[in-house]
Design goal:
The chain has helices spanning 2-12, 17-21, 23-46, 48-57, 73-79, 91-101, 117-126, and strands at residues 142-145, 155-162, 167-175, 185-192, 196-200. The protein is α+β, with helices and mostly antiparallel strands. The chain has a 5-stranded antiparallel β-sheet with strand order 4-3-2-1-5. The chain starts with a helix and ends in a 6-residue tail after the last strand.
Amino acid sequence: MADELVKMQDQFSGLDMGALIGGPLKAACDAQIMMAKATSDFIQHVGMPDMIVAQAKKFEGVKESPANSNNVIFNTHYYGHEVEGAAYPWCCAFVWDVFRMCGASKLFYDGQKTALCAAVESWGKNKQLTISNKSKGKKGDLVIFDFTHSRRACHIGIIIKNNNDGTYTTIEGNTGTGNNSNGGMVMKRTRSISLIRCIIRPKYAT
């Protein structure tokens, strides 16, 4: 997104907008250019990981409705219409939607769709995006869980903070205090490294 905004700004540079379109329209164009530059500068200064986490946190407390239905806005965005039933768990759809809302779809699963945590894990490993040391996760990293130690990916979230005590603060969709991987709510959680299968770091700009 930042690169696209910079290109938009550059396209106008060097043009005599006053001669081309007159005063009022020139003022409107100048405002558009300034807005594009301001947004670009903000993204480059704050960083995409911060934007991803901030966007995810906006939905804290959102629940599927009715309970145990998997009918939730993130599934509606993912499938293009409302869905219900056990076939539609949505922890992965939540992460997909957050990246989409931030204009960063290409950073998650190469811009493709998947609602399967195992597919995201395979993608991260194949693209060499996984972090070998599970204690070195950072804000904005994706975290794949195996709560039952079944050697199977069962849940995904986004790291908010490395607590440097063997735990992470995360933001997750479809979780709950009574069911870690199918709890029906967007929540902040504190997760032990022992529950983590892998950590994936998208190719954020540096």
